[in-house]
Amino acid sequence: MSEKTYIPAGEQGQVPASQIGATLEALAGTIHARRNAGDESYTHRLLTGNADSPLKKVVEESNEVALAAKDVEAARALLAGVSGHEGSHSGMVEAFAKQADAACDHLRYEAADVVYHLLVVLERYGIDIDEFAAELNNRMTDEERPAGAVRLHEEHVKRGK
């Protein structure tokens, strides 16, 4: 676990085997349930409204991830530049370190937006989370893939189309 993460005290006995797996499954379930929510639900509107809306959001959020990643690169370059100079002011180094850390936090935030909107698109077109996992698993070698991982039947494996 990262130094930026924690498990609430009352939930420490309920830790899932896979944090990302449990989180993606819960998010996919919430998105699926929102299909039947009213128009006050943003997710419902993305699932049932104009098809371009969720697609545009995936593109928009992906661009924001790219820009956020460039901000991380720039912040780290500044930090490396001041850290390597003899006589660098410690306050300046600390300020650039905080800037780099904040840029990473922003990148994580934007990446979560991409994942959410991607899961909305998959739900809209009837691709469940296990089918998506199977696609990812099919792209790994036998050595890389976890034992017992779901896979796609060969007739559903499409590459480059």
Automatic annotation (TrEMBL):
Question: What are the EC numbers?
Answer: 3.6.1.31
Q: Name one GO molecular function term.
A: ATP binding
Broad EC category? hydrolase
**Metabolic or biological pathway:** Amino-acid biosynthesis; L-histidine biosynthesis; L-histidine from 5-phospho-alpha-D-ribose 1-diphosphate: step 2/9
Record-linked SUPFAM superfamilies: all-alpha NTP pyrophosphatases
Record's catalysed reaction(s): 1-(5-phospho-beta-D-ribosyl)-ATP + H2O = 1-(5-phospho-beta-D-ribosyl)-5'-AMP + diphosphate + H(+)
Which keywords does UniProt give here? Amino-acid biosynthesis, ATP-binding, Histidine biosynthesis, Hydrolase, Nucleotide-binding
Instruction: Write the protein's name.
Output: Phosphoribosyl-ATP pyrophosphatase
